[in-house]
Amino acid sequence: MKKPFIWDKYSDQPAQLKDKQYKKQMRKKELFSLIKTFCTALIILPISIIAMPFIKRKRINSETFFSMGVDYQREPELTIELLEELNIKKILLRIKLWELETLDELKNFLIKNKHRKVILKILQDREHIEDLELFKKDLRAIFKTLDGLVDIYEIGSTINRAKWGFFSVNEYNKFYKTAYDLKEIEFQNNKLIGSGVIDFEYHFTAHTLFNFFKYKYDGIASLLYVDRRGAPENTQMGFSLSDKIAYLSTMIWISPKTKQELYITETNWPITGTAPYAPTSEHECISEKLYSDFMLRYHFLAFASQQVDSVSWHQLIAPGYGLIDNRKKITKRLGFQTYKFMLKTLQNAQFLRLDIKRNYYILQCLVNNKLLQIHWTLQPSTLKNEDFFEVYSSDGTLIKDETLKIDSSPIYIYIKDAV
Question: Are both 204 and 59 inside the same structural domain?
Answer without folding.
Answer: yes
